[in-house]
Amino acid sequence: MNNKPLVYFLCTGNSCRSQIAHGYLEALGGDKYEVKSAGLEAHGLNPRAVQIMKEAGIDISHHTSDVIDPEILAAADYIITLCGHANDNCPVVHNDKAERCHWGFDDPAKATGTDEEVMEKFREVRGSIRERMEKFVRDGM
């Protein structure tokens, strides 16, 4: 049986930000936490998110884009939304033990410009998420 605290990252489509956070927390704190991610909808794993995480030495290509699971939501110790839409529309949580918080990050999938400019936005968001995951592993919420 796993006694690690369960962290559930939520976003709109579970394609970019929640996948990046999931990958980083598994890499940085997988010995301390069980990590899952989901979305209000499943938009599929964004190939650019996979690419920029690979650049950082983390393989998320095996992740799946999932819709919020009420059982996981009810079991979570931490419920963390990564976008305003998910924060505003997250299902009601009947879980007294869960700490719920919102860490908003820009949506890199909405970036415009050249391919390199879009990739730079992905890298920028990746860096912000990595910093937040390092702080979470070090200091908690």
Helix proportion range: 40-55%
The dominant shape is globular
What's the mean pLDDT score?
91
Pattern of helices and strands: EHEHHEHEH
Instruction: Tell me the strand order in the biggest sheet.
Output: 2-1-3-4
SSE layout and pairing:
Blueprint: E1 6-11, H1 17-29, E2 34-39, H2 47-55, H3 70-75, E3 78-81, H4 84-89, E4 99-102, H5 115-139
Parallel strand pairs: 1-2, 1-3, 3-4
Helix pairs in contact: 1-5, 2-5
Description of the structure:
The model has no long low-confidence stretch (mean pLDDT 91). The chain has a single domain, classed as Response regulator (Rossmann fold), CATH 3.40.50.2300. It contains five helices and four strands. The chain is globular, with a radius of gyration of 14 Å. Helix content is 42%, strand content 14%. Helix 1 packs across helix 5. It has 141 residues and is α/β, with parallel strands linked by helices. A four-stranded parallel sheet has the order 2-1-3-4.
Question: In brief, what are we looking at here?
Answer:
By secondary structure, the chain is of the alpha/beta class. The chain has helices at 17-29, 47-55, 70-75, 84-89, 115-139, and strands at residues 6-11, 34-39, 78-81, 99-102.
